[in-house]
Design brief:
Helix content: 55-70%
Distance between the termini: 63 Å
Shape: globular
Number of strands: 2
Radius of gyration: 23 Å
Length: 464
């Protein structure tokens, strides 16, 4: 259960944040995407993670999968790009926590109480609350992955209970008032079905991504070869149901009004709760959203902070980055250093950079698929406690499905945002590529120097 909870918060955290799918694509298409996206995106990726995660169950997870399957260069790209991506991604969750909090206490709104300025940055009460969240859950991570998993179980109960209450109230409203939740397929009469599907797919992918995150702490799991495939399969069902039921029930409020689905955006389920049952359910859902935000930060910190650690272990980053605590054997420098970066990114709005997140995540995903195929060819005798059934046909279907979905999402982002997302992505990939060569050269020099020292230290062999 701790592993299921860890995957749950690495991917979802509950239905909090999926509201925009319905205002973008419409109620019928939104529900359809919640059901279809796992079939064409989540389940194929979870199968890849199950096979590679049980075959290579080590800290660093997907970094080592790609490195072993495709070589050092692509392994480096996998590790660095995902870590760079986390700078923006991880800063979202403390900010989301404060946005839920300000709905109950406006005093914490950004810019309301600026304590001091440093250059162009304003250090206000909102940022210090974000900092407090980061400090608390950095401390939890320093206790080890087991602590993160155990605390995630508690947070999962806290987060899912408000959504369960919202679902019950909403379904009662649907039955007693005779409301048709899917009376409209798209968000507007002039929106085509194809456009509604494409516009919502990117958001659905965002809410269904991250199945590989837990792999980076596989070295600290208890028997990952046995538990990881089961935990992934349970999580796929739990997350899909966790999106579907509250969303369907919340459509009881109808299309119009403040709480109507036409005006839904991230956090709107709090307004829906108030409209359906009053302030008590609104507060309950809001608190659930706050806990979901911090639990997702904690789970993803456990994953992302292992990336600089394994890059340092492999000689790309300085050795001190790989330093572990003596008692719990957790990568202290890597966890604390990553948290400091995330705190700095909370200072300003980097929301425009979020559009590059799914781009880089999908590049990472496709590299994992390529590594899976390469390892099947190059290391057929590798022990695979879980092996995707169906042979070459299954691998072909998985590859086609994931490649097609990722390409479609990239095209939709290009249509919606022009070259902005592509430019950010090219900068990230180009920078990572240029960074590889001097670091790889330095790594080879250090390896050669170490080998020379070991040779010199060997006692001279004198024939008797």
């Amino acid at each position: 259960m701790p592993l299921v909870a860890l995957i749950f918060f690495s991917v979802s955290g509950g239905a909090y944040g999926i509201e925009g799918l319905f205002s973008t694509s419409g109620p019928g298409m939104g529900l359809l995407l919640i059901v279809v996206t796992p079939l064409i995106y989540s389940i194929p990726h979870a199968l890849v993670c199950a096979e590679l995660g049980t075959a290579i169950p080590v800290d660093g997870g997907f970094y080592h999968w790609v490195r072993r399957g495709l070589g050092d260069f692509w392994g480096f790209q996998q590790g660095v790009l995902r870590w760079l991506c986390s700078f923006v991604d991880m800063a979202v969750y403390p900010v989301l926590f404060t946005s839920y909090l300000q709905s109950m206490a406006s005093v914490v709104a950004p810019g309301q109480h600026v304590l001091f300025h440093l250059g162009n940055f304003a250090f206000d009460l909102n940022w210090f609350i974000c900092l407090a969240v980061i400090v608390v859950f950095t401390a939890v991570n320093l206790m080890g992955a087991a602590w993160v998993g155990d605390s995630s179980v508690i947070f999962a109960i806290v987060c899912l209970t408000p959504m369960l209450l919202l679902s019950v109230v909403g379904f009662v409203h649907l039955l007693t008032h005779g409301t048709n939740p899917v009376g409209e397929l798209t968000s507007a009469p002039n929106q085509s079905t194809w456009n509604a599907f494409g516009a919502g797919l990117f958001l659905a992918m965002w809410n269904y991504s991250g199945w590989d995150s837990v792999s980076t702490v596989a070295g600290e799991m208890e028997n990952p070869r046995k538990h990881l495939p089961k935990a992934l399969s349970i999580s796929v069902v739990l997350i899909a149901v966790g999106y579907l039921l509250p969303s369907l029930a919340s459509l009881a409020v109808g299309a119009d009004g403040t709480a109507g689905w036409k005006n839904w955006q991230s956090g709107s389920f709090s307004d829906v709760a108030k409209a359906l049952a009053g302030p008590w359910l609104q507060i309950t859902v809001t608190v659930g959203g706050m806990f979901a935000s911090v639990a997702m930060f904690s789970a993803l910190l456990a994953s992302n902070a292992r990336l600089p650690f394994v890059l340092a272990e492999d000689g790309y980053f300085p050795k001190w980055v790989a330093r572990k605590s003596a008692r719990r054997q957790v990568p202290v420098v890597s966890i604390v250093g990553s948290s400091v970066i995330y705190a700095l990114f909370c200072l300003s709005s980097f929301s425009n950079l979020i559009i590059v997140d799914v781009f880089l995540t999908n590049i990472s995903l496709l590299l994992q698929v390529a590594a899976l195929i390469a390892l099947r060819i190059r290391e057929p005798e590798l022990e695979r406690p879980y092996r995707i059934p169906g042979g070459a046909l299954s691998l072909s279907l998985i590859t086609l499905s994931l490649t097609g979905v990722c390409a479609w999402a990239a095209w939709q982002q290009y249509v919606a945002n022009g070259t902005q997302a592509v430019t950010y992505c090219l900068f990230a990939v180009g920078g990572s590529t240029l960074l590889y060569f001097p670091l790889a050269w330095r790594r080879r020099r250090r390896a050669a120097a170490t080998a020379a020292e070991l040779t010199a230290a060997e006692p001279e062999k004198v024939p008797v």
